[in-house]
Amino acid sequence: MEEKIEDMDFEKALNKLEEINNKLERNKVPLEESIRLYELGMELVKYCGGKLNEAEGEIKKISIKDGQEIMDELD
Fold first, then answer.
1. 29 φ, ψ to 5°?
2. What is the pLDDT of residue 46?
3. Which of 1, 6, 30, 53 has the fewest CB atoms within 10 Å, measured from its CB?
């Protein structure tokens, strides 16, 4: 049984996406399987994009917080 995307961490999802890309590039997959892999790949792209957006938001929060703390120390 294949692991659900939402249970994967970012790195595992990205590796799965690379694996799918490699399979599709080799053109050794039947059409029906290619369509299934493409669909799964698009779900992984969306998932990874969401994870990157979450990380960016966290970095912004930390930067703002740390920036404010530095400004408070300078006052």
1. -110, 135
2. 97
3. 1
